[in-house]
Amino acid sequence: MINYDLKKIRAVVFDVDGVLSGETVSMGPDGEPLRTVNMKDGYVIQLAVKLGLHIAIITGARDENIRRRFEYLGVKDIFLNCSRKIKVWNELMQKYGLLEEEMIYVGDDIPDRDIMLRAGCACCPKDACIDIKAVSDYVSDRIGGHGVGRDIIEQVLRAQGKWMTSSEAFGW
């Protein structure tokens, strides 16, 4: 369980590769990675959006399929091709009037470290690199691409008394 006051969380921000998709991916004929998605992550992301939890994506990946996937789930803030993620983190905070202690960041590798040091609650999958585990408040028992998003968001929604309490929970 996440050892943090999840009642104050207003936003969960995710990296993609190694978090919401596996760290090992097939390559398409054009050289682009063919990422997998986890259906339970998808379900809980769209539910969280409907219930008012702000979800955002910050990734170094350039693939527009990522944007399409998360737009389909209702995510409004999707940032691709981010070489320095901390800049986008700061913009998100300012745009929505968020405090860092109201935000969770979920990452798995060195490009995520700057944000994880500032997030109220830093989380990672169990197969994250050792340097990221060292700065994480919570290490999920799930590996990247296999339900990390579901694990973290479900804990937030349960702590906030929003899990399975409205008709929104029973559909897409």
Keywords, please?
single chain; 172 residues; alpha/beta; Rossmann fold; 6-stranded parallel sheet; two-stranded antiparallel sheet; globular; HAD-like_sf
Task: Provide structural commentary.
- Substrate binds at residue 17.
- One of its GO terms (molecular function) is metal ion binding.
- This is 3-deoxy-D-manno-octulosonate 8-phosphate phosphatase.
- The chain is built from six helices and eight strands.
- It has 172 residues and is an alpha/beta fold.
- The strands form two sheets. The protein has a six-stranded parallel beta sheet, with helices on both faces. A two-stranded antiparallel sheet has the order 2-3.
- Helix 1 (39-50) runs parallel beside helix 6.
- The two termini are 26 Å apart.
- The mean pLDDT is 94.
Q: Total helix count?
A: 6
The end-to-end span amounts to: 26 Å
SSE pattern: EEEHEHEHEHEHEH
Q: Please give the number of β-strands.
A: 8
| Strands ordered across the widest β-sheet | 5-4-1-6-7-8
Mean pLDDT: 94
Beta content: 15-25%
Enumerate the spans where pLDDT stays under 50 for 5 or more consecutive residues: none
Q: How would you describe the oligomerization state of the chains in this entry?
A: single chain
Q: What summary fits the major beta sheet?
A: 6 strands, parallel
Domain count: 1
For this structure, what is the CATH homologous superfamily? HAD superfamily/HAD-like
Q: What overall form do the CA principal axes indicate?
A: globular
- CATH architecture verdict: 3-Layer(aba) Sandwich
Please state the structural category: alpha/beta
Q: Please tell me how large the radius of gyration is.
A: 15 Å
- Output the CATH class name: Alpha Beta
Helix content: 25-40%
Say what the CATH topology is. Rossmann fold
